[in-house]
């Protein structure tokens, strides 16, 4: 969202009117879920997508017509096959799309996007609130009405769309080598807050990790003295060797983190597991660890493995936020993916 806020503020500063297009409700089979955003000006779509196809085509046309006007409103789109006025799409669902006109002649809009950028930089939970008709967008710290991270509210007789951001945890990446340098920009682009730690100062240079929020040179044996890991956080262990891995994993297992992933070959991860078992950790405790890390895409290079890790974190995040259906009972699936050492290993994935 930070990129979107910055783009809309830049266009506002450049005296260019835009329209923010948002899916605020969806039912049935739809190409994008609630919370899909797109920015449009008189030339057409300039950022984001609400799913492509005829839905996006019609929404872009509508937004181009609204550019520069003071109209804010919601329109229903039927994604049926064309019968009874549908858009001729095979999805078969229905969506409500909010069109919010960002006009250069409204100084309050510019002030809002400046506030939104500051709030997004803080990395703390906040709500974006968009009015269906009259009024200005808002940033709120808390909303008590309704349920879910995306909601439609009614206040003083007016409907509002509210979406929560930054409610998910932080990603702590242990190890600043080639894999971390490929992974952090991807995770940042996906909206994850990332911190990189290494015991070598040359591998904690922020310039190595575009999009990183923080870097720190640490002693892997003293992590409990500097980190307070919360249940919603993710721990990604991609250090340079099994000794550092064991130090970090030992720390990680004593935290309530929702995700602990360790990179490496099957042999390396088994070595660390056996070492920790001998130290007194139980098999149940060690089963929390996704090791080796990532999901199956046949990855071998650091860039490819970064994608497999990012995909796994997306999956975990979706499960946590209720965007993915969970099975009634835990199942285990086996995945094969390449390690950072070029070998092939088996990974157990919980769904």
Write the CATH fold name of the largest domain: Rossmann fold
Low-confidence stretches: 84-90, 324-351
Helical content (DSSP H or I, runs of 4+): 25-40%
Q: State the domain count.
A: 2
Organism: Blautia faecicola
Protein name: XdhC/CoxI family protein
Pfam families: XdhC_C (PF13478), XdhC_CoxI (PF02625)
Quick synopsis:
The protein is an alpha/beta fold and 351 residues long.
Description:
With 351 residues, this protein is α/β, with parallel strands linked by helices. It folds into 2 domains: 2-165, no CATH class; 170-350, NAD(P)-binding Rossmann-like Domain (Rossmann fold). It contains 8 helices and 17 strands. Strand 6 (126-131) and strand 7 (138-140) form a beta hairpin. Helix 4 packs across helix 8. Residues 84-90 and 324-351 have low confidence and may be disordered. InterPro entries: MoCofactor_Util/Proc, XdhC_CoxI, XdhC_Rossmann_dom. Residues 171-313 form the XdhC Rossmann domain. Residues 12-75 form the XdhC- CoxI domain. It holds the Pfam family XdhC_C.
Question: Notable features of this structure?
Answer:
single chain; 351 residues; alpha/beta; Rossmann fold; 2 domains; 5-stranded antiparallel sheet; 8 helices; 29% helix; elongated; disordered C terminus; MoCofactor_Util/Proc
Secondary structure elements and pairings:
Elements: H1 2-13, E1 18-27, E2 37-41, E3 44-48, H2 53-66, E4 73-78, E5 94-102, H3 107-122, E6 126-131, E7 138-140, E8 150-155, E9 158-165, E10 170-174, H4 178-189, E11 193-198, E12 214-217, E13 234-237, H5 242-252, E14 259-262, H6 266-278, H7 283-286, E15 289-290, H8 302-321, E16 332-338, E17 344-350
Parallel strand pairs: 10-11, 10-13, 11-12, 13-14, 14-15
Antiparallel strand pairs: 1-2, 1-5, 2-3, 4-5, 6-7, 6-9, 8-9, 16-17
């Amino acid at each position: 969202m930070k990129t979107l806020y910055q783009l809309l503020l830049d266009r506002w500063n450049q005296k260019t009117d835009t329209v923010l297009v948002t899916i605020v409700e969806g039912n049935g089979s739809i190409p994008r879920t609630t919370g899909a955003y797109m920015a449009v000006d008189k030339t057409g779509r300039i950022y984001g997508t609400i799913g492509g196809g005829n839905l996006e085509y019609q929404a872009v046309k509508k937004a181009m017509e609204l550019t520069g006007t003071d109209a804010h409103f919601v329109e229903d789109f039927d994604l049926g096959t064309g019968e009874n006025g549908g858009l001729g799409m095979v999805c078969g669902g229905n969506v409500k799309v909010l069109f919010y006109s960002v006009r250069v002649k409204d100084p309050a809009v510019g002030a809002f996007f400046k506030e939104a950028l500051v709030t997004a930089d803080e990395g703390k939970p906040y709500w974006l609130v968009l009015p269906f008709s009259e009024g200005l967008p808002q940033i709120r710290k808390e909303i008590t009405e309704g349920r879910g991270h995306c909601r439609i509210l009614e206040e003083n007789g007016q409907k509002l769309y509210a979406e929560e951001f930054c409610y998910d945890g932080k990603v702590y990446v242990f190890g600043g080598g080639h894999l971390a340098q490929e992974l952090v920009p991807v995770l940042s682009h996906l909206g994850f807050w990332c911190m990189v730690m290494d015991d070598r100062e040359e591998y904690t240079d922020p310039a190595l990790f575009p999009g990183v929020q923080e870097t720190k040179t640490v002693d892997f044996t003293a992590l409990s003295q500097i980190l307070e890991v919360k249940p919603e956080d993710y721990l990604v262990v991609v250090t340079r060797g099994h000794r550092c891995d064991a130090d970090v994993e030992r720390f990680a297992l004593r935290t309530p983190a929702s995700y602990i992933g360790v990179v490496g070959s099957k042999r390396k991860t088994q070595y660390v597991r056996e070492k920790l078992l001998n130290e007194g950790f139980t098999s149940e405790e060690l089963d929390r660890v996704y090791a080796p890390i990532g999901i199956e895409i046949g990855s071998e290079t650091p860039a490819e493995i970064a994608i497999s890790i990012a995909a796994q974190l997306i999956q975990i995040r979706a499960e946590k936020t209720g965007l993915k259906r969970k099975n009634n009972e835990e199942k285990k699936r086996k995945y094969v993916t390449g390690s950072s050492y070029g070998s092939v290993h088996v990974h157990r994935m919980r769904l």
